[in-house]
Amino acid sequence: MVELARGPADGPAKLAPVSELSDRDVLRIAELSRLALSAEERVRLGRELAAILTYVEQIGAIDTSGIEPTSHVQLDRPTLRADEPKPSLSREAALRNAPDAARGPGLFRVPKVIG
């Protein structure tokens, strides 16, 4: 649970920053992202991710109880279009850039990430 820090009397309260992520957390995120990070990069990334998480928590703390939800921010015109097929890359062209493709069946192969 993040604690609210008192702001100035005339300003909004501010959230206390998230504590830095542990080196283990940063290593796991880097592993999932397939990034090889030096010790200095892990420290910097940990600080940057903590800043992002702090910002997300600040957004989450905004009182939106009086604001009606919207499905899309652009309300002045329709946001949906007809779902019509259009020309795109051929399967062969798409697979041409794949580092490990099953070209026979025309599939992309990706490394297992979870589990």
Description of the molecule:
The radius of gyration is 23 Å and the shape is flat. With 115 residues, it is mainly alpha-helical. It has a domain at 15-64: Histone, subunit A (Orthogonal Bundle). The protein has a two-stranded antiparallel sheet. β1 (4-5) and β2 form a beta hairpin. It is 33% helix and 7% strand.
State the distance separating the first and last CA atoms: 29 Å
Structural class: mainly alpha
Please summarize the sheet with the most strands.
2 strands, antiparallel
Might you state the CATH topology name of one domain? Answer: Histone, subunit A
Main CATH class of one domain:
Mainly Alpha
Strand fraction equals 5-15%
Helix fraction bin: 25-40%
The total of helices stands at 3
Sheet with most strands: strand arrangement:
1-2
CATH architecture of one domain: Orthogonal Bundle
The global form is flat
**What's the total number of strands?**
4
Mean pLDDT: 80
The low-pLDDT segments are 1-8
List the helices and strands in order. Answer: EEHHHEE
**Compute the gyration radius: what is it?**
23 Å
Q: What topology emerges from the helices and strands here?
A:
Layout: E1 4-5, E2 14-15, H1 23-32, H2 39-60, H3 91-96, E3 101-102, E4 107-108
Antiparallel strand pairs: 1-2, 3-4
